[in-house]
Design goal:
Layout: H1 15-35, H2 43-55, E1 61-69, E2 74-81, H3 85-103, E3 112-117, H4 126-149, E4 159-161, E5 170-176, H5 184-201, H6 207-210, E6 213-219
Helix pairs in contact: 2-3, 4-5
Organism: Lysinibacillus boronitolerans JCM 21713 = 10a = NBRC 103108
Protein name: Lipoprotein
Length: 228
């Protein structure tokens, strides 16, 4: 969305002339404002928002994401459930049914819905809950930025991977795209820069990022890693 700079050159010929000029500029400004609109959200972002509305708050949800896994070419909606084994067993089928109803008659209808127990040893600590919330924040922000900057070029949502809490901190960001041809490396580098800029400027306060080494991998239409 840009800013419209107006330069007025007023030549006082008559009172009528000034009034006509003012009226014309006001009409033009009104038309321009009506034509300006926010870029549309991708189907992935819209579906993640629907999942958030239906699940978060009602269930003990950790991370949730829409992923295309380049290693086995599978397409998945992954939901992590926090809490005890007993709690997980009592809600997993209900959560899966909720998500299946959401994706019915959409482009995600054939995606695998994986409801998994979060990898938490015995009980959820405040630190682990914070870690999950920070990861969700990162995924949502990157997905939003890429969806707006590169419509029709991103294939599914961003896939984030981190090691267990006791391992060295590393955040792996994988992005599947629909890029191919001679310009894919240039566009891949541009997408990588967009992600780094998002992390630095819009997620500067994210504690997980401050403590992690970030690695970004961009994949083309054929699921091959683009050299960036």
């Amino acid at each position: 969305m840009g800013f419209i700079r107006k330069k007025f050159l007023i030549v006082v010929l008559s009172i009528i002339g000034v009034l006509l000029l003012s009226f014309g500029l006001a009409s033009l400004n009104g038309c321009a404002e009506k034509n300006i609109s926010a870029p549309p959200k991708s189907a992935e972002i819209q579906m993640l928002e629907k999942i958030e509305v239906k699940l978060v708050g009602k269930y003990k949800i950790g991370t949730y994401s829409i992923n295309t896994h380049v290693d086995n070419n599978s397409q998945d909606i992954d939901i992590d459930v926090l809490g005890s084994q007993e709690y997980y067993d009592s809600v997993k089928h209900e959560i899966k049914d909720v998500v299946r109803n959401l994706i019915k008659s959409t482009k995600f209808e054939e995606y695998n819905v994986n409801v998994k127990k979060g990898e938490i040893r015995q009980r959820i600590t405040e630190e682990e809950l914070e870690r999950n919330n920070l990861l969700v924040e990162i995924a949502k922000k990157i997905n939003n930025e890429l969806s707006n900057a590169y419509p029709n070029k991103i294939d599914g949502g961003v896939d984030l991977r981190i090691p267990p809490p006791e391992a060295p901190q590393e955040l792996i960001v994988e992005v599947s795209t629909l890029l191919d041809g001679e310009k894919q490396e240039a566009l891949g580098r541009e997408i990588e820069r967009t992600i780094y800029t998002t992390l630095e400027k819009k997620l500067a306060s994210n504690k997980l990022l401050k403590e992690s080494t970030v690695k970004i991998y961009i994949y083309n239409k054929n699921k091959e890693k683009i050299k960036t």
